[in-house]
């Protein structure tokens, strides 16, 4: 029995360290290769020993696919390919290929330089790893080998995020990665055609949430920023370098443009600048508005947003500053925050979720007095606002995608177990498809019934088509022919041709059947009665009464004879060939019911 | 048939001539015009299919006259039988279709042949093309039932073809020609009408998506032709909504919409439950579901159609805006709900706190339905869509639905307000317009108003102006709202001073709509103090004027308000009432006797006094011929003065008054010119004095052009009079020239030209000549034969006497007449700073003007730039530069490029707007004029321009280029 096996090494009932193994029709594919933010020990990377115990990675895996550049989807890649050892192809989209090494390098720097970890991958390893990458275009079907092919679909979420369809023969799996079903200011919405995969592996971060319209949030955000700068206050927006930061920049930039504002907006330099460069390049991956207007002006060439310098923080007058990192736990954003916290005219806007223990979390939960290092107490007088800008699909979005792709079954990853449970129920209830949610290391086996293509000769097809009355789409049709299996290819040919090809002689196979009839009359008369009866019942068949006293219906022969023992019973001998089995058995059944009482 | 006959005939020539009569008929056909013969020869010459195809292509480029069509068709058919190459046959088939569309050709004679060749054709492409030809033939003969039935029959036969193209065409044919009425011609020639709908419906499940689409389209075509579709189609169409192909889904959505409009009230069961709902509701739900389809084409289609489903019940309608939010399985309120709550709790929207949107109650997991099949949240999705086309369609649909349902209008307000912040300007504009359209159904809450007003700072002028228009007709619920609106509008004014007029207008309406809300704000707005006198504000401050406009308009219906005014406010009122009378209404102020207010209340029931006055003064003038010339002149002068003043005072009568005044002015000029002493003096003596007469003639000409082209609503009776006046002016000109020039030669030409013009006048206005009894032209026409024969000197003499004797024609007043006018708002012409640019290069000057009562401004309005050296430049603005903010009003926003060689010091150029006219447009065209009977010298088309705006001076300075 052919089957699809799925084993999450990470992201099974969990968020972070996405890594899913899929075996489909004898091919093994690894989807994503991420790290976990929450751990600093071995648990931060997926457990590749699960694979290596049966040999080398390259031997086992046919390919690796990376959905997008977030570290929880690609963070373990250099470790996996260089330190554990994998030489096969790694597939990702062009923007991911461009941005991924920047983030990996950044990650490495923090781990090695700041935290002083040993035995971590090196810059060279990142470079070597990226050499194994094969970039794919959207909707491009890539043949990994003769049988395995993959295809990327647009996923929204971040620049270059893609969903992948993995297909072997007629079996297919779709992996969504992270995706977003509502468009935002710089990216479009995820889209997939009705590809009807056997299995859809989808993220489920917001399995139990239905979100409000994006417009309200955007409007609130803009209004707050605008009001603050009009009052002469300064606005601090702590962000992470990639993704949301660009969205917010576009949002503010267009707003500034529309409203003709002159207040300066600054963007902390470094990583973000580099990333913006790539956003400028990959215009085709952005949303309709940016794509349509980039001929006049590339939206990422910000007119109002300038690079930030440390000294600017002390400048008088209003300004807006985007600074990293996003949770106010260290770096530039924290420095600026300390400088501005004392003034009630200023404002800090937290555009995302903050981990417990960070300054961001503290101020969001309403703490107004913060203890900084060195026993200093910082009084927060500035306004603190929270705006949630998230780029994951909500429950409705997930359902929408499932509806679009029409899979045979669904598998949930990248979410919390409790929330997944709810969504699982809903999916099973509303789409009537089976839904799985394996934990890490747990294997889901899915039996499939792959369709097997069979070649048919045109002559046979036309002959059989001609017999049909009306074209009926998508309905099974009965077809007579001979199936020839030769060298793993299947052909359907007419029986004559099959005989000829195989050099066989045709055997006649005839069925005969006796039917006893209570009839006292002579054989001739019985035959005549049978004839008239059949003539009446079978209007569209050719019924003949032959001179020798037998009756034929098409090629079926019926003879009447007297019973040797009982003259009151007549024996009807019905004989038909194998080809006429259907009609023959119908006739016998008919005759067994007896003849109608003739008007005597 | 004919080709068959012909073939046989050719064969029979060699044998025995048996059928003489057939030859003769054939001969008749062959003697058709040479066109067919040429084609025949060409086709016979063709050696290869490619050659033949070339000939056919060449032939297809030229049109064929209706008479020769049949011959050509015969030739083509003949060749068709012989041709083996399918591509040539295809071309012939398509040519047949084209030819049968020729006007004046009845294609029923070629139908038999077409059907005949159809039966023997093997190539699918050619078959499809032939069916197309049949379609062309069939649609040419919509009355012939028998043919239609026959064609339908043919189509049905070919429906089982294996090629999708053939099936497509068959379905198209059925859709265009099939009929439902079985009874009419039950069996003309044994053909029974079939149930076309059933046949087409069977192909809804064809294996080819293109055929499925064609089937649905055919069904829609049936509907368009007025056949009532069966309700049973509904279920079939619903199945097609989940088709794999977008064009099928898109067409299916349309079909469902059509059925839902046909049978809105029938009841359909809900699958998997025992309930039943109205069909229109069910269809609405289904179409709503398609708003989240995978293909944006379908989404646009669905969103558009939603708007026109007005019969849907309100329960379903309101669901479209509903999206139950939840977070972590707990019910959450939407931002809209929160805003509403904040508002109703009496607190200003204070910004969100962390956890403000924290989810409240737990949701029963079983009760949450993530993909409602119904209408839930359709618009929420549509408005958030990725493609702006879908968003616009959704906004339009919202608008249409809200117009028909006030409760829905109230509900959709939040969403529309949100759309004001869309990233695409078109969408923002559309939603502002939508809001304006439904504004009588809604009242804005304060928080909504806040969002609306935030858009006032938009840098796009269109958006701001649309918003001003919106505010004009918005209902505001509180006095804070009014205050907020005023503050924001003033901010807008400070930021974009060019919006001044639009803002004033907006405040005028805002004030007159909400007098009671403005009342408590008055002391604050005027910054009056109970004890202290405050400083008198600057009267020229546009912001202060804006405030006053608001207050005065509110005071109109609120008699207690003037009590709050301070002294200077009254003074300012008097000033503004005079200077900005269109913005400031007449007020009844305490302590001040406003004459107009008391008088008007008495006379109100009677006829409008100014109308009466106008009529009286005109009547007085028209009895003129009995007065002596001196008195006539004085009376005319007086009346003209009166009328001009009246026009200034009464804007609604301005058109009529100006129009009549201009006419009287012409008459006055004419009388004056004829009063000149010069006529009595011998010719050589008054050379210098003749200036006056010829200037008068010139001016009359100009004025008549103005009368003819600058007023909208001028009817034919007025045009006659105007032309008559012009003719008189021309006669005057002729006389003056005759008296001042020596020699006869130039005069000869002029005379002839004048007579031609008289002739032309007669032709154009022959119907109206009866009204011109006793007039100049009447007499002139009597003498026409004599004039034609006489010498120029004599003509002049006759004309002179006739001019003097002619009576003053009564000008009937048109019902509605408006003078075209234009005001240039920008450049303002006040700047002392010259616009500097390097000579030889260009500088762009922004021109912004409003045009009133201009018909077709795109083609008539020009911009003229006059340089100090007398050089004039005419600029044609692009059609896209004109906007149409209201009926009869246009706005021109364009850029004019100036350039000049270097000047030593800055100087002013004049910019003005011109109205171009072309008399061809107005004078009805007669066929004989085009026939060349009238010689081209006669001015049948007079082209020219009339300046119709005050010139604005712009200070410019082209600097010499630096080396």
Brief descriptors of the model:
heterodimer, A: 600 residues, alpha/beta, seven-stranded mixed sheet, 24% strand, B: 963 residues, six-stranded mixed sheet, 42 helices, 18 strands, nucleus (chain A), metal-binding (chain A), hydrolase (chain A), Beta_Casp (chain A)
**Biggest interface found:** A-B, 59 and 51 residues
Shape of chain B: globular
Q: Which regions of chain A are unreliable across 5 or more consecutive residues at pLDDT < 50?
A: none
Strand content of chain B: 5-15%
Helix content of chain B: 40-55%
Distance between the termini of chain A: 64 Å
* Total number of helices of chain A: 18
Main beta sheet of chain B, described? 6 strands, mixed
Question: For the report, how would you describe the main beta sheet of chain A?
Answer: 7 strands, mixed
Strand order of the largest sheet of chain A: 6-5-4-3-2-1-22
GO molecular function (chain A): hydrolase activity; metal ion binding; RNA endonuclease activity
Organism (chain A): Nannospalax galili
Keywords (chain A): Cytoplasm, Hydrolase, Metal-binding, Nucleus, Zinc
InterPro entries (chain A): Beta_Casp, INTS11-like_MBL-fold, IntS11_C, MBL, Metallo-B-lactamas, RibonucZ/Hydroxyglut_hydro, RMMBL
A few lines on this structure:
The complex is a heterodimer of chains A (600) and B (963). Chain A has 600 residues and is of the alpha/beta class.
What would you say this structure looks like, in words?
The complex is a heterodimer of chains A (600) and B (963). With 600 residues, chain A is α/β, with parallel strands linked by helices. Helices cover 32% and strands 24% of the residues of chain A. In chain A, a hairpin with a 4-residue loop joins strand 7 and strand 8. In chain A, 42% of the residues are buried. Chain B has 963 residues and is α+β, with helices and mostly antiparallel strands. Chain B is globular. At the A-B interface, helix 7, helix 8, strand 19, helix 13 and helix 14 of A face strand 5 and helix 21 of B. Chain A: One of its GO terms (cellular component) is cytoplasm.
């Amino acid at each position: 029995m052919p089957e699809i096996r799925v084993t999450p090494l990470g992201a099974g009932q969990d968020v972070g360290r996405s890594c899913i193994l899929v075996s489909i029709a004898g091919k093994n594919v690894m989807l994503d290769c991420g790290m976990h933010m929450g751990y600093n020990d071995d648990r931060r990377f997926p457990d590749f020993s699960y694979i290596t115990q049966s040999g080398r990675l390259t031997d086992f895996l046919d390919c690796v696919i990376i959905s997008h550049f977030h570290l929880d989807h690609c963070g373990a890649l250099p470790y996996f390919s260089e330190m554990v050892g994998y030489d096969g192809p790694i597939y990702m989209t062009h923007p991911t290929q461009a941005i991924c090494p920047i983030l990996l390098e950044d990650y490495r720097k923090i781990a090695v330089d700041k935290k002083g970890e040993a035995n971590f991958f090196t810059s060279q390893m990142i470079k070597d790893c990226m050499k194994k990458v094969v970039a794919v275009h959207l909707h491009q079907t890539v043949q990994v080998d003769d049988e395995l092919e993959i295809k990327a679909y647009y996923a929204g979420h971040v620049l270059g995020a893609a969903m992948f369809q993995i297909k072997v023969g007629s079996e297919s799996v779709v992996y969504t990665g992270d995706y977003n079903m509502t468009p935002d200011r710089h990216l479009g919405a995820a889209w997939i055609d009705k590809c009807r995969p056997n299995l859809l592996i989808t993220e489920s971060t917001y399995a139990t949430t239905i979100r409000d319209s994006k417009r309200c949030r955007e409007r609130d955000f803009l209004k707050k920023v605008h009001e603050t700068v009009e009052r002469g206050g300064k606005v601090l927006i702590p962000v992470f370098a990639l993704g949301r930061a660009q969205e917010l920049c576009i949002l503010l930039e267009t707003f500034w443009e529309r409203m003709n504002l002159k207040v300066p907006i600054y963007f902390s330099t470094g990583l973000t600048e580099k990333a913006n460069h790539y956003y400028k390049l990959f215009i085709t991956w952005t949303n309709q508005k940016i794509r349509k207007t980039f001929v006049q002006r590339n939206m990422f060439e910000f007119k109002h947003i300038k690079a930030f310098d440390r000294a600017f923080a002390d400048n008088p007058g209003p300004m807006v500053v985007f600074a990293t990192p996003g949770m106010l736990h260290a770096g530039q954003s924290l420095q600026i925050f300390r400088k501005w916290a004392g003034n009630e005219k200023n404002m800090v806007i937290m555009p995302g979720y903050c981990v417990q223990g960070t300054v961001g979390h503290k101020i969001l939960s309403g703490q107004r007095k913060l203890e900084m290092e060195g026993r200093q107490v910082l009084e927060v007088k500035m306004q603190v606002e929270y705006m949630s800008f998230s780029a994951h699909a909500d429950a409705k979005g997930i359902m929408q995608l499932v509806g679009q792709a029409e899979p045979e079954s669904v598998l949930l990853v990248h979410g919390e177990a409790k929330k997944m449970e709810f969504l699982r129920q809903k999916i099973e209830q509303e789409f009537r498809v089976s839904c799985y949610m394996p934990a890490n290391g747990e294997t889901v086996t899915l039996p499939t019934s792959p369709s097997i293509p069979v070649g048919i000769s045109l002559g046979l097809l036309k002959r059989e088509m001609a017999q049909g009355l009306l074209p009926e789409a998508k309905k099974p049709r009965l077809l007579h022919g001979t199936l020839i299996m030769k060298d793993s290819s299947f052909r359907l040919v007419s029986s004559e041709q099959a005989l000829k090809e195989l050099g066989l002689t045709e055997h006649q196979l005839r069925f005969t059947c006796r039917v006893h009839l209570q009839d006292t009359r002579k054989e001739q008369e019985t035959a005549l009665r049978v004839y008239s009866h059949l003539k009446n019942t079978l209007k569209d068949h050719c019924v003949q009464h032959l001179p020798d006293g037998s009756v034929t219906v098409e090629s079926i022969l019926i003879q009447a004879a007297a019973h040797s023992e009982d003259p009151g019973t007549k024996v009807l001998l019905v004989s038909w060939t194998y080809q006429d089995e259907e009609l023959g058995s119908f006739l016998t059944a008919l005759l067994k019911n007896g003849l109608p009482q003739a008007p005597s | 048939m004919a080709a068959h006959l012909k073939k046989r005939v050719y064969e029979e020539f060699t044998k025995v001539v048996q059928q003489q009569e057939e030859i003769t008929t054939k001969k008749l056909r062959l003697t058709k015009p040479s066109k067919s013969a040429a084609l025949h020869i060409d086709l016979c010459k063709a050696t290869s299919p490619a050659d033949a195809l070339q000939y056919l292509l060449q032939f297809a480029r030229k049109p064929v006259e209706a008479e020769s069509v049949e011959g050509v068709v015969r030739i083509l058919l003949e060749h068709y039988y012989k041709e083996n190459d399918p591509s040539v046959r295809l071309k012939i088939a398509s040519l047949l279709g084209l030819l049968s569309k020729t006007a004046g050709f009845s294609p029923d004679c070629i139908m038999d042949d077409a059907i005949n060749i159809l039966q023997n054709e093997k190539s699918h492409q050619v078959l499809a093309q032939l069916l197309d030809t049949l379609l062309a033939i069939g649609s040419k003969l919509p009355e012939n039932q028998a043919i239609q039935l026959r064609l339908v029959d043919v189509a049905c036969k070919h429906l089982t073809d294996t090629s999708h193209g053939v099936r497509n065409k068959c379905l198209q044919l059925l859709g265009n020609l099939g009929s439902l009425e079985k009874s009419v011609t039950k069996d003309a020639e044994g053909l029974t009408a079939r149930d076309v709908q059933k046949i087409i419906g069977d192909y809804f499940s064809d294996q080819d998506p293109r055929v499925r689409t064609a089937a649905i389209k055919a069904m829609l075509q049936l509907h368009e032709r007025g056949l009532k579709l069966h309700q049973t189609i509904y279920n079939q169409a619903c199945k097609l909504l989940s088709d794999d192909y977008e064009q099928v889904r898109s067409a299916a959505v349309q079909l469902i919409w059509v059925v839902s409009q046909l049978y809105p009230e029938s009841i359909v069961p809900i699958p998997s439950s025992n309930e039943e709902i109205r069909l229109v509701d069910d269809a609405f739900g289904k179409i709503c579901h398609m708003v989240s389809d995978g293909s944006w084409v379908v989404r646009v289609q669905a969103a558009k159609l939603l708007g026109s489903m007005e019969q849907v019940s309100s329960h379903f309608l309101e669901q479209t805006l509903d999206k139950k939010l939840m977070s972590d399985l707990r019910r959450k309120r939407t931002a809209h709900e929160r805003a509403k709550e904040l508002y109703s709790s009496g607190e200003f929207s204070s910004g969100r706190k962390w956890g403000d949107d924290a989810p409240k109650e737990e949701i029963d997991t079983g009760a949450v339905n993530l993909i409602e099949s119904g209408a839930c949240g359709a618009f929420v999705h549509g408005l958030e869509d990725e493609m702006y086309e879908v968003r616009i369609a959704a906004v339009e649909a919202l608008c249409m639905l809200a117009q028909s349902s006030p409760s829905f209008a109230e509900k959709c307000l939040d969403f529309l307000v949100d759309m004001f912040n869309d990233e695409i300007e078109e969408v923002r504009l559309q939603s502002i317009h939508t809001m304006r359209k439904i504004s009588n159904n809604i009242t804005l809450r304060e928080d909504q108003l806040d969002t609306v007003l935030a858009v006032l700072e938009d840098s796009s002028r269109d958006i701001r102006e649309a918003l001003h228009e919106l505010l004009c007709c918005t209902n505001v619920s509180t006095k804070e709202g009014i205050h907020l609106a005023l503050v924001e509008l003033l901010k807008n004014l400070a930021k974009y001073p060019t919006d001044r007029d639009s803002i004033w207008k907006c405040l005028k309406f805002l004030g007159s709509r909400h007098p009671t809300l403005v009342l408590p704000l008055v002391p604050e707005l005027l910054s009056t103090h109970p004890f202290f006198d405050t400083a008198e504000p600057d009267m020229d401050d546009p912001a202060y004027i804006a405030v006053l406009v608001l207050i005065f308009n509110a005071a109109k219906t609120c008699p207690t308000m003037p009590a709050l005014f301070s002294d200077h406010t009254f003074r300012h009122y008097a000033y503004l009432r005079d200077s900005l009378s269109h913005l400031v209404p007449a007020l009844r102020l305490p302590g001040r006797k406003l004459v107009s207010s008391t008088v008007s209340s008495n006379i109100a029931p009677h006829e409008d006094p100014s109308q009466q006055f106008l009529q009286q003064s005109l009547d007085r003038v028209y009895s003129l011929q009995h007065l002596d010339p001196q008195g006539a002149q004085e009376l005319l002068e007086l009346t003209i003065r009166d009328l001009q003043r009246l026009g200034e005072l009464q804007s609604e009568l301005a058109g009529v008054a100006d129009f009549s005044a201009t006419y009287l002015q012409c008459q006055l000029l004419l009388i004056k010119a004829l009063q000149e002493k010069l006529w009595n003096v011998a010719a050589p003596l008054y050379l210098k004095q003749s200036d006056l007469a010829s200037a008068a003639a010139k001016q009359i000409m100009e004025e008549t052009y103005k009368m003819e082209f600058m007023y909208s609503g001028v009817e034919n009776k007025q045009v006659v009079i105007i032309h008559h006046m012009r003719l008189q002016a021309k006669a005057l000109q002729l006389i003056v020239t005759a008296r001042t020039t020596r020699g006869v030669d130039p005069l000869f030409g002029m005379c002839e030209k004048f007579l031609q013009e008289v002739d032309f006048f007669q032709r154009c206005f022959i119907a109206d000549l009866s009204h011109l009894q006793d007039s100049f032209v009447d007499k002139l026409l009597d003498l026409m034969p004599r004039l034609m024969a006489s010498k120029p000197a004599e003509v002049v003499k006759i004309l002179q006497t006739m001019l003097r004797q002619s009576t003053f024609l009564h000008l009937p007043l048109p019902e509605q007449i408006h003078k075209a006018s234009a005001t240039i708002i920008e450049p303002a012409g006040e700047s002392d700073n010259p616009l500097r640019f390097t000579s030889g290069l260009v500088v762009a000057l922004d021109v912004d003007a409003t045009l009133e009562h201009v018909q077709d401004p795109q083609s008539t309005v020009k911009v003229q730039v006059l340089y100090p050296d007398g050089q004039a430049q005419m600029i044609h603005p692009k059609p896209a530069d004109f906007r149409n903010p209201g009926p009869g009003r246009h706005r021109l926003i364009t850029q004019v490029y100036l350039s000049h060689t270097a000047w030593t010091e800055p100087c002013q150029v004049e910019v003005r707007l011109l109205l171009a006219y072309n008399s061809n447009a107005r004078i009805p065209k007669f066929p004989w004029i085009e026939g060349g009977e009238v010689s081209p010298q006669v001015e049948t088309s007079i082209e020219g321009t009339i300046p119709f705006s005050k010139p604005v001076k712009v200070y410019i300075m082209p600097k010499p280029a630096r080396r």
